[in-house]
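Appendix B. Extra example for self-study. Work through it before the problem class; the solution is given directly after the inputs so you can check yourself.
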Amino acid sequence: MPNLSLHGISKRFGSTLALDGVDFDLVPGEIHALLGENGAGKSTLMNILRGLTQPSTGEISLDGHPVRFDAPQDSTRVGIGMVHQHFLLVPTFTVAENLALASPDKYPPLREAADAAKRLGWSIPFNTQVSNLPVGTQQRVEILKALLGNAQILLFDEPTAVLAPSEVEELFIVLRALRLEGRSLVFVSHKLNEVMALCDRVTILRRGKNAGTIAVSATTAEDLAQRMVGGVSETVPIISSVKTLEMREQPHNTLLSVTHLSTVGGLDSVALHDITFTLQAGETLGFAGVDGNGQAELAEVLTGLRPRSAGRITLRGREISRVTPRDLERLGIALIPPDRQRQGLALTLSIADNLTLEAVNLPRFRRGPGGIFIDRSGLRAFAAQLAADFDIRADDLSQPARSLSGGNQQKIVIARALWHKPDLLVAVSPTRGLDIAATGYIHARLRERQAEGGATVLISTELDEVAALSTRIAVLYEGKIVGIVPPETPRETLSLMMGGRTAENTLG
Amino acid sequence: MAETITQAARILAALATAFGLTLLVILLAHQDPQAALSALASGAFGSPYAIAETLTKTIPLLLTGLGVAIAFRARLWNIGGEGQFLVGALAASALGAYVLKSLPAFVLIPLMLLAGSAAGALWAGLAGWMRTARGVPEVISTIMLNFIAAQLLSYLLHGPMQERAHAQPASEALPLTATLPSLWPGTTLHWGLLIALGMAGVVAVFLFRTRAGFALKLVGANPEAARAAGVDVAETRLTTMLWSGGLCGLAGAVELSGVVGTLYENYSPGYGFAAVAVALLGRLNPWGIFASALFFGALNAGSGSMERSAGISANLSYVLQAITLLVLLAFQWIRWTPRRVIVPESTP
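Solution. Structure tokens for the complete assembly:
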């Protein structure tokens, strides 16, 4: 008998359906992986289980009885604990103080925590300030916190994201020990090898829907990759309609050339290794891959937001390795950043301001000595023109950008990237989180730019999108290019490549 | 338009609440509120002299309020207006009463004001540099620099800058040639009002009509988007702190040259701190700040007369100031809260 089951869970945020009728169940003594791309709904599902957010529709039941989690305390009470990806510890408190803070009771639960630590073979310095502990130990404190009250169900939200490889092994040993004690664990991840190595069953989320729950022993990493990024037969009508501008007869006219490009990785970034490719005018090179394999880093290094450690980037034969964001427009490069709310827009500023973030620096909008003044009416007219050209639906451009829907917000980003017809466009997840209509519109604009002779580096975790827009597809895996293949390459092959196999191996 | 009206309504509601709370304080102190209020009103507006006094008190509040607002607009929490005000006055005094005191007024006064601004800018720039180069939070560094400025003042007044008789810790008085001319003969009002109003205009132009002002706004709204749009975030923050400190320093110099003449140890009655209330009540808008500086100026001027004729301590005006600030913050919080809970349309 499943001890926790979710039925038909949906969650709506504004106009977006983050979860769409998801079923999920958990039995005692299993590690159940929740696998999916960023934005697939994994965190939302976890937050519902934890009581941090409530489902719009659907039922949760525990041992057959319906339950409601209106607050985290409710889920704690029935024995659900969560280990957050970003630890919820007070850095200036000691371990003991943090445990006391998390305890539902009034007394510090030191004995209980010490027992648990002993069982798991840990030595925890209970009187040390948390900020002085290494990340791996901080995570153990989080696990102890989650175990307080003898929680039988533990949710781990991307627990390996913050760990070094050796620490990952140790974590796995602990997770297996917890399973042996009969607890059920939910393991959220987008890393296939971890799921294959650790888990018993896996539920794949794709665009907020359950794309299958299967036993790990009955599947392969390639199968999971394929389910994660989109089924073989699945097509999105708007995208597939136009397809393939022929691989045009180009005079051999290399626009962008990247050779032996590498970067240094960090705590939350992947290192790029020896990236080499060229791009002709009128070409779109799509970068496919499971999220977190160097896509964001590649976009940043191409647009000067991240330093490189080795290699060369040339645009029309000119070295641009030391480009900064300020130079982009002059060089004819534009960026559609991956996260419009973080890097693309200033949500509290007006729509008109957001449309002119770069345009204020154009000579034609400068006034006065040294161009220190701006031509406000000129900029207003310019913003209105862009809003009309890019179909941005707003009653009043002086409203703050956050009043717009996600699709219209993204159109602001697209408008700023495309109006000056850049020779090179770096587009990262240009349709993330958007509905079909907005996605179709943005694809049409990208295709139009391509037809005009612009070159595009398209980085997206949506395989459908990459396949529909690209003239060639490069697959990234762990910061390396596994291979560059034509867009007609079968999905199965691409999936294998996304799991790290080279193109030759998959074909041969 | 509707937004402007609701904002105005919110400010009026906040002021009314603050006013009500102040009445409560007066009642709790067993005083007659009617007598208190009429004394307050007559001290602020009751005679030409009172009006001039209100305007005179408005000047330093307007200048420091503008300075603080510029920083706040870039989400830089400059709490060091007080220290910048003091070093501005110090620099002006050093030039006007010591180094250059024999220069004619038309050269000396501009030089003093310039030196005051430069000193204030430098003082705030230090905090700005520590923020951009070393990541030191400007809230802390500007507060610390307040203490350093106060101690520096104290040291100089006991040492190199003490008046000739060495009788008390005060500076040499400014000569007449270093004193801002009167704007309204027979009253305290001086040319500083025109300087302050002029600066409000300059700040408005800077914020709303220059590229640097646009960059400042963008850095305040979203530094990451600013960086992606090619703005040099560190440089913008640094120049913002220079502007901010420059205005507070100018306030110190103008107050010295227009009103006080002599530096002494509690030279500033907290203008640099009042500036935070002035800037927030003015919604960080230069003309709004003029209105709120006028409001607090009237309060300061009126509270003196309240003390004299109704026997209520002038400190009441500080109570009212503090209550207004707290109520405003509370009202702002009411405004922000519902917006915060809107979840972004894409899940992380």
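Self-check: Residues 277 and 322 of chain B are 8 Å apart (CA to CA). If your reasoning did not lead you there, revisit section 3.
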